[in-house]
Structures are given as structure tokens and as C-alpha cells.
Amino acid sequence: MLYHLMVPLAAEYPVFNVFKYITFRTIYSVITALVIAFMLGPWLIRTLSRHQIGQTVREEGPKHHQVKGGTPTMGGVLILFAIMVPTLLWADLTNHYVWVVLTTVVGFGAIGFRDDYLKVVRKHNQGLSARSKLVGQCLVAGLVTGYLYFIAGFDTHLTIPFFKGFNPDLGIWFIPFTMLVIVGASNAVNLTDGLDGLAIGPVMIAAGTYLLIAYLSGHARFASYLQIPYVPGGGEVAIVCGAMVGAAMGFLWFNTYPASVFMGDVGSLPLGAALGTIAVTSKHELVLVLVGGIFVVEAVSVILQVGYFKMTGKRIFLMSPIHHHFELKGWEEPKIIVRFWIISIVLALLALSTLKLR
After folding, report:
1. 321 preceded by cis ω (within 30°)?
2. CA dihedral of residues 249, 251, 253, 259 (deg, nearest 10)
3. Of 31-40, 144-153, 310-319, which one has max mean pLDDT?
4. Which of 34, 201, 318, 333 could cross-link 341 (Cys pair, CB 3.0–4.6 Å)?
């Protein structure tokens, strides 16, 4: 909105030229999201508490988690608002990649909201059934990937990290592949959201990493120098990434140990889906496995635990996702959280190195 209001003034007032630069608008997208989260966070927490919208703790979980029962949840509403508003203010709203990411955020946010509403407000313990949730996720992911393939004419070549001359064309398989990326990322972040600040920290790091990747991919000169796919208009997605970083920082202020609020599915599902969609639009889908390595490990630990238990009746981990395994081994919660953040930073740096190591 501000972009469209201020850029036309640049011809007469040169000071408004700064609004043409993605870097300038991304910085203020971060700041705007952070301010929104700081301003609305306390009010949201009070409102959730007043309406008794609190976390229900699983009985089979670690016993010390029982003290978290009743902590306000569905705080992801704050994150979504802090992403949407700065993006609408600072982004070029004629850019279809921006709308693809925002559609994903809104769609997955609606699924997460419905799931949380049933569990917390209506007291349906399981919320949406796993099948209903997966169908909804696939519909939203299919909508955005179908748009990219059939309408936007998006490049369907797959970028392989460390290989500059090997870019297979997925063709129509682009749709199921990218749906898998988006839905998989969404559920992986959801599984990671089990300790105070555990999920939002790596989300912030991953969003910051893709902020840089999206900007470089959307800049013809930098893309040529790094020999990565050039995505015309893709740099505008950096503003959405900036909003995600600011929203994550603001939410972490209230979600850090001991948490005053939890994000719930209304936060974790759209955040993961947004990362998956941004990975697709920046043509760095496979790098997400490295950038979001913590999410991958958490998801794989659940898959292995369930599969092995069905086959043998035994468990690989004391409890899954794997962060609960470390809890039951005696690690204190803050130690697990900070160590996972450190690993996320290292993985982000390794992911950025793939831009040059080709």
C-alpha cells in the first residue's frame, strides 16, 4: 500500500525513491511486524486468558508439563496479523508471488484456527481429524501450486544444491512435488512446537535465511554471479520473509521460557507452509531440508517411532517428537531449546554456503 502511494511521488520528490528499494521496505517490514507484535501481544494474552482459551496438556507427555495447563494458546493469531499487515503495507501488491505466499498463510491459518477452536473452545480433544486436516492442507497447497503451474507459467526446473548443471524439469510433477514441500513443512513445524520457543526460534532463523535467498534470486545480477535461478519479481518475497522475522521476534518475546502464550496450530501450520511456499517461489525447495533441519529431524523422529512401534511393539525414542526424548533423559527445557536454536543457525549458514558451492 505504501509502495503504491509513495513511489509515484518519487518523480517530483526524490526522497521517496527509497520506497523503490526492496532492502529499505524489507527492513521496515521487520520493524512494523515487531512493533505490531509488541503492541498487541499483551492485549491478546489478556483476552485469551479472560475467555479461558488455554493449553490442554497431554497426559502421556512429560509430567512437568502439567504446570503449563491453562497457558493461553492460539497466539498464532498475533503472528498472522503481524505478517499480513506489514506485507500489505510495504510490498508491491501487483506481485503474484506475494499473493501466493499470503494465500498459503491465510489458508493454512484457517485450518489451524479451526483445529484449535475445536480443541480449546469446543473441548473436542482431538480437534480436526488427521484426514480432514490433511485434505484441507492439500487443497490449499494444490491451489497455490496449480496457480504457479497453470497460470503464472512458473519455471518447473528443480534446483539441486551443489550442482549448477543438473536441473531436471519436473513438468506436471511440479504440482505434487511442491504440494509435498508445503504440506510437509507445515506439519514438520507443527510437530516441533512442543516446548516454549522451540519452534518460533528456528522459524525466525529459516525466514531470515530465505529472506536473503529470495532477494538474491530476484536480483538478476546477483543470481547470475552466484549461478542460481533468476526469478523475476521473486525478490519481493523478501518483504514477506521480513514480516515473518519481525513477527517471530515479537512473538518470541512472549513465548520464551516460561511462555506466557503458545502459538497453537493457527500459528505453526501457516508458518511451516509459508516457509515451504517461499522455498518454492525462490527456486530453492531442496535447501529447505537443510535450512529447516530441526523440523525435518522432529518429523522423522515421529515417523520412525510410529513405524518401528507398529512393526516391533518397541520404541526407538523414550518419546517422540525427539525434543521430548531429551526431556525424559533429564535435559532441562531451556537447554534443549537453546541448543536446537544453535543447530538451526549452523544449518542456516551451511544452507547459504550452497549458493556459492556449485
Report:
1. yes
2. -140
3. 31-40
4. 201
Q: What is the pLDDT of residue 69?
A: 65
Angle, in degrees to the nearest 10, between helices 265-281 and 174-192: 140
Nearest-5° angle of CA 90, CA 204, CA 141?
A: 75
Q: Region 45-61: what's the mean pLDDT?
A: 76
Q: Integer distance in angstroms from the first to the last C-alpha of the chain?
A: 39
Compute the residue count for the chain: 358
Give the domain ranges of the chain: 2-58+68-353
Among residues 96, 125, 129, 90, the alpha carbon closest in space to that of 1 is found at 90
Q: What is the dihedral of CA 321, 325, 330, 332, to 10 degrees?
A: -20
**38 and 253 in contact (C-beta within 8 Å)?**
yes
Which ranges of the chain would DSSP assign to H, the alpha helix?
2-6, 22-50, 76-90, 96-116, 130-146, 174-192, 200-217, 220-226, 237-255, 265-281, 287-291, 293-312, 322-328, 333-353
For the segment 153-181, what is each residue's pLDDT rounded down to a tens digit?
899 999 998 877 788 999 999 999 999 99
C-alpha cell at 151: 497460470
